[in-house]
Amino acid sequence: MQRLKCELAYDGSAFSGYQIQPNKRTVQGELEQALLKLHKGQVVKVYASGRTDAGVHARGQVIHFDTPLQIPGERWSVALQTLLPDDISILAVTKVAPTFHARFDVTAKEYRYLVYREQAHDPFRRNFAYHYPYSIDIAAIKAASRHLLGVHDFSSFCSAKTEVEDKVREMYEIEVMEDGGFLVFRFVGNGFLYNMVRILVGTLLQVGAEKIAVADIPAILAKKNRIYAGKTAPPQGLYLWKVFYESCITTCPGVK
Amino acid sequence: MQRLKCELAYDGSAFSGYQIQPNKRTVQGELEQALLKLHKGQVVKVYASGRTDAGVHARGQVIHFDTPLQIPGERWSVALQTLLPDDISILAVTKVAPTFHARFDVTAKEYRYLVYREQAHDPFRRNFAYHYPYSIDIAAIKAASRHLLGVHDFSSFCSAKTEVEDKVREMYEIEVMEDGGFLVFRFVGNGFLYNMVRILVGTLLQVGAEKIAVADIPAILAKKNRIYAGKTAPPQGLYLWKVFYESCITTCPGVK
User: Fold this and answer.
1) CATH code of A72's domain
2) Does residue A255 register a pLDDT over 80?
3) Which of A87, A224, A252, B138 has a C-alpha 20 to 30 A away from that of B31?
């Protein structure tokens, strides 16, 4: 038996999210189906760094699973890709220690959220970014972001449905940049709560629209109540970009 | 009654092509359905610059139709967009002379074909470009392209199913460039036959793979028979980019 770590990308448009559900098309469901075939009917359970919601994409999701199969490392990607639908792509498969855990060993995650601002609706970006054709005060968004850096209780910025008790997380970096025709929000932190990035982006866009003041952000955090933050931005702009397992301070590119 | 010219973009992924067909989802079908609603049940036929096949995209398709409705010009885009699915986008609607015809008045068309060459399959580009992760001799492709410029009988470069008699067309420009992570083939000509761009790209890629010699292109043209050209590249890389109605020599950007 060996443990494999697998990095994958997926277009979330046609999935009911990452997590397996009966009678729904899910990323986990497709992965376990492919592994079932590869293992001739033997069930192989996969463990991910975390879930993603319906319509949310991944550029660097990470899973692990245990297998008795002796397939050379470089052949694993091809073997899995062959059995998977083409909206999932296997980026790398590597052998890891039997103690490695895709979820529990996460040291940081990077999410990105893409917005396009042109007036006209773009059929080629409709599933891959949020169409927000309104004026935005980028400087205000950046100023508001600074209040969100560091260690905070992010209760105001997660869905009321969140089940975890401890809502304290550390935000290492928030970057707001123009890239390839998109306004990109980049978040790196040690952990993210349910809907947290989408609520952060929704709130920051309202700051950019001068509907929430920059100076209100600390007060919103202090309330520890979802109703005080802004809207939840839609899922199609969100990407789980990268999952880090190393000591983040020294090895994550771009983390200040 | 007035005649309107309408420019539109569409993601061809979920359409059985442009042209209306019974029990299929088509771009023309969606447009005529939207116009039927807008005209309270009165049938309005649309005329396009030409068809596009299933899976083929448009950045600048042009249609015309006649309407008795008195809607101010700038409101037309919104009125139509509201009634259309989000994989079609209305870019502009303008009043034209009653003699204008979206198909018969075309003076030139520009098509682009996008290829991505990274080793790994990309789930975000699978419907929007052709995955060709092999080595390519770009200089050979450019040299071969030069043989295709000018006036030729393109019988070898169109589907055997092509119904038109006269297969002589003039190719004004072929450009092969790297742009935004894609290898882009750009074709501007006075007219294109059925599957012509896809066969041109398939053949040029085989030239790039050294399976067809640059010097063979004139001979392939001279044969006037589809079986001598290369493969038909798949539909998802193809975009009807722009349709020209002016005297092309003086007004088309990029035409040499």
Assistant:
1) 3.30.70.580
2) no
3) A87
Q: Is B187 helix (H, G, I), strand (E, B) or coil?
A: strand
B21 and B147 share a domain?
no
* Same domain? A19 vs A40: yes
Domain identity same for B241 and B143:
yes
User: What is the pLDDT, as a whole number, of residue A253?
Assistant: 45
Distances (CA, A) of A204 to A139, A175, A218, A221, B140: 11, 12, 13, 13, 50
Are A85 and A168 part of one and the same domain? no
- Write down which residue in B35, B66, B96 finishes a domain: B96
B172 is in an annotated binding site: no
What is the tally of structural domains in chain A?
A: 2
Looking at the structure, tell me whether residues B243 and B125 fall in a common domain.
yes
Whose CA is closest to B123, among A10, A20, A60? A10
Facing B124 at nearest CB: one of A11, A81, A122: A11
**Residue carrying the six token digits 């010699």:** B213
- For residue B122, the chain A residue with the least C-alpha distance is A89
For residues A31 and A140, state if they share a domain. Answer: no
Interface predicted TM-score (ipTM) of this complex, two decimals? 0.86
Return the closest-CA partner of residue B59 out of A211, A25, A122: A122
pLDDT in tens, B70-125: 998 789 999 999 999 999 999 999 999 999 999 999 999 999 999 999 988 999 99
Min Cα separation A87/chain B (Å): 5
What whole-number distance in Å separates Cα of residue B236 and Cα of residue B38?
31
Identify residue A228 by its one-letter amino acid code.
Y
Which residues of B are catalytic, by number? 53
On whether residue B102 sits in a domain, the answer given is no
Domain with residue B197: its CATH number is 3.30.70.660
Are B236 and B136 in a shared domain? Answer: yes
Neighbours of B160 (CB within 10 A): 10
Q: Which residue ranges of A are tagged as binding site?
A: 111
Mark whether B116 and B226 lie in a shared domain.
Answer: yes
Task: For residue A89, list chain B residues with Cβ-Cβ distance below 8 A.
Answer: 120-123
SS3 category, A40: coil
Q: How many CA atoms lie within 13 A of B183 on its CB side?
A: 20
Count of A-B CB contacts under 8 Å: 45
Rg (CA), chain A: 19
**Binding site for substrate, residues of A?**
111
| Helix spans in B50-105 (H) | 73-83
Q: Is A53 a catalytic residue?
A: yes
Pairwise CB contact (< 8 Å): A11 & B120: no
* Tokens representing residue B209 in the block: 């793979």
Spacing of C-alpha B117 from chain mean position = 22
> Could you say which of A96, A117, A137 is where a domain stops?
A96
Q: Which domain holds residue A46?
A: 2-96
